[in-house]
Amino acid sequence: MPTTPLKTMVSETMKNCGAAAKLDDEGGLAVISPVTGETVAQLPEHSVAETHAAIARANEAFRKWRLIPAPRRGELVRLFAEELRKSKENLGRIVSIEAGKSPSEGQGEVQEMIDICDFAVGLSRQLYGLTIATERPGHRMMETWHPLGVVGIITAFNFPCAPWCWNAALALVCGDPVIWKPSEKTPLTALACQAVFERALARFGDDAPDGLSQVLVGGPSVGEALVESEKVALISATGSTRMGRIVGPKVAARFGKCILELGGNNAGIVCPSADMDMALRAIAFGAMGTAGQRCTTMRRLFVHESVYDQIVPALKKAYASVSVGNPLETQALVGPLIDKTAYDSMVTALAEAADLGGVVHGGEREQIGPDSAYYVRPAIVEMPAQTGPVTRETFAPILYVMKYSDLDDALEQHNDVGGGLSSAIFTTDLREMEIFLSAKGSDCGITNVNIGTSGAEIGGAFGGEKETGGGRESGSDAWRAYMRRATNTINYSTELPLAQGVTFDID
Ligand code: NAD
């Protein structure tokens, strides 16, 4: 491969992360940067046999790691957070190169890794069980939590590192080794993260066994080998609902545990009392940020008829003027789509929407850089009803806008799609807010008031319902998925009373 400025940037940045991997292995996996559409590296792929060997190594590591006290395990994650802080800029740049994010969003993703590490360090001293009242005299009942086993982490291209860390930081303090199968579109970020993790390992010392954290480069076949292995206790898979429909049943068939973090079709509702300026800014970031390639991207907007003519023209103006450009060379707010397939799916969805009476504003391709790069102007589409492409996730910056007159009707429509990830209401009316958050309100895993649908913090459990898969990871009590629970009853009396008053007297 001839050297280009972008390829030089890749090799220098990888080197700065400590990942001086061979980036030019002819015949391997081509890593294409969406920034220019050029191939920036050719990596060797792991085979299924190598995947099985990695699983065996991880299980060996589990036998040792599960016996290391949790606060000591937390120390490794603390060191990792220190190393991440040192590498924030370089890791952020690799994210920008591979996923096309702006520097601020690329580094924001690394910051999210640091945040979850800090959370996990505290958690390592708080893996609490319960003491439970028992009906039998002279007995004590309690719940204990133990390490679960090897965790297989499959991730999507659009968040190439933070979701790995949401899983890995918790898994490691919970006593579980991790095997990471990153998206085949973003393997460099994973290799760079692993190199940074290895720096923490070197400082940590001998308590950490070999094979505690491994990265497997490859496509679905490598993921499938993890999914099908009975030696992988938990599969945490982030990606499309299509992928989840394959992975979920396979893991269930072997009675494995699964966290599914799948697609969303997230919506906002703008009520008459909304702070319009705030709503405008929140919707703009939620719908256009990361070029519409976030699982939490706002894709549908229900606007009350009384404020429709106030907010929709302002949105159209923002869409027409937002800066689209190369994230490595400009301050543009909207970067490229990941590839031609993403562009084609956007074109198809917009044509379908127009056929159904939608009025499309924007959505044109912008000629930025070579032909192999796909930049688009975000599209806002005024729809007469929630039909056709509005009911599915198109992973591109399209916001469908619909008018409503009654909040109950808007809520019915809001919930009448497959995805159940994130949602938002813009209102200063207490009743409307509480209804949205209530049992008859949004049916999503994330329900926000006066902020957009994207940009979650690590402190809360992240995930969604229905076709989003039902998984939760990151904060709150998500750690429990990485441990097994045991209910213990201890008899310290001299009798053997049976529960429920049952008698069973033998001579
Ligand atoms: P994708 O489903 O194409 O790929 C995701 C990962 O799954 C990749 O690593 C891929 O190699 C792997 N994979 C694919 N088929 C597999 C199989 N049969 N067995 C095992 N592994 C398999 O998704 P993508 O295009 O990379 O990412 C975009 C999608 O991910 C969107 O739908 C988006 O909403 C979703 N996403 C969800 C979340 C969330 O937290 N809910 C976060 C980010 C992205």
Automatic annotation (TrEMBL):
The active site is at E261. Its EC number is 1.2.1.3. Keywords: NAD, Oxidoreductase. The keyword Signal does not apply. It is an enzyme of class 1 (oxidoreductase). InterPro entries: Ald_DH/histidinol_DH, Ald_DH_C, Ald_DH_CS_GLU, Ald_DH_N, Aldehyde_DH_dom, ALDH7A1-like. SUPFAM superfamilies: ALDH-like. One of its GO terms (molecular function) is aldehyde dehydrogenase (NAD+) activity. The keyword Oxidoreductase applies. Gene3D superfamilies: Aldehyde Dehydrogenase, Chain A, domain 1, Aldehyde Dehydrogenase, Chain A, domain 2. Pfam families: Aldedh. Residues 29-485 form the Aldehyde dehydrogenase domain. It comes from the Bacteria. Belongs to the aldehyde dehydrogenase family. Homotetramer. This is aldehyde dehydrogenase (NAD(+)).
